[in-house]
Design goal:
By secondary structure, the protein is mostly helical. It has three domains: 4-89, no CATH class; 114-179, no CATH class; 210-338, no CATH class. The chain has helices at residues 18-34, 41-59, 68-78, 84-89, 114-122, 126-147, 150-164, 171-178, 184-189, 196-199, 202-205, 207-238, 241-256, 261-270, 273-298, 308-334; strands at residues 4-9, 12-17, 65-66. α12 packs antiparallel against α15 (273-298) and α15 (273-298) packs antiparallel against α16. The radius of gyration is 35 Å and the shape is elongated.
Amino acid sequence: MKTTEKVNIAGYSFTLEEDAYSELDRYIGEIRASLSEDSNANEIVQDIEERIAELLGESCPSGTVVNKKMVLDIRRRIGEPAQFSAEENASADEKPKTEKRLYRDLENRVVGGVCSGIGNYFNIDYVIIRLIFIVLFMASFMVSFVSGPFFMFVLMMYLCLWIAMPPARSVEEKCKMKGKPISLSNFRTNFSPAAIAQEAQEIKDSPAIRTAGRIFSSIMGILLTMGGFGCLLSLIFIHKTPDLISLYTERHAQRWATDNAYDVLWVDIMTHPMLWWLVIAVVGILGIWMLYNGLRLAFDLKAPSWKPGIVLFVLWVISILALVTWVLAQVAEALPLFI
């Protein structure tokens, strides 16, 4: 029976046999010693620990105890600290290469990292790839006015690449994306610490999506504000509506001499003060709700803790129900006249 140790590596819990724990602790200690003169030693060690946690997660299903052989295999895959100085002094031609793979570059993305990923794969500045896509978008948009929706074709091409190209999240994937060997020198020169959980929000957090979302929110805020002002201005004329309806029905009756029950019911309902007070409530609350949300979206304001938008929406629904209930009650009261 072997003694085990529970350890936390880069936020993940593992159970290690005692000799595996000693080997891993010695390995990390050697790495720290080799980086003693580096000002970014803590960040580099953090990256290496994240890589160790990834490899342990791959080889050790939940509940599996890590043995010394697994730790030695991880040490072999990452590299020996003693080789660190030699790798730094080696020329680019002498460094081993790994097979490149096409990944989306999340560290240099504007939207999804497609252009920067293609640039890494073909050793082309990703700014050039972005300019090519921008030119294609603009050209296809212009052609669409003449001979068809080519703009959608270019957009779908970009989306298909976004779906087909996996994101480079782990250290190993970033090395394969750049065609670099997975070694300690790459932790020093190529990668900054980044939490995997943060990169999972790649779409939401991309600069282009944030900018587009802010522009869309501002436009919607302006439209809602204008609609709210329109609703509130309409209240000035609503209280005059019963008088206009009464005038119209009076002239209609004088001209056509009609006075049936349906007309009487319609006039009674449409000229009743309660109906228009309820209409004023519905339109007024809707206007205030639109004005409130419009200003909040346009100026990116935070809602108070008591959520006035929800309160106004509930009051608006209640006013609609009250209006419908009152109208149905009036119709039900007059129903015996039609039977």
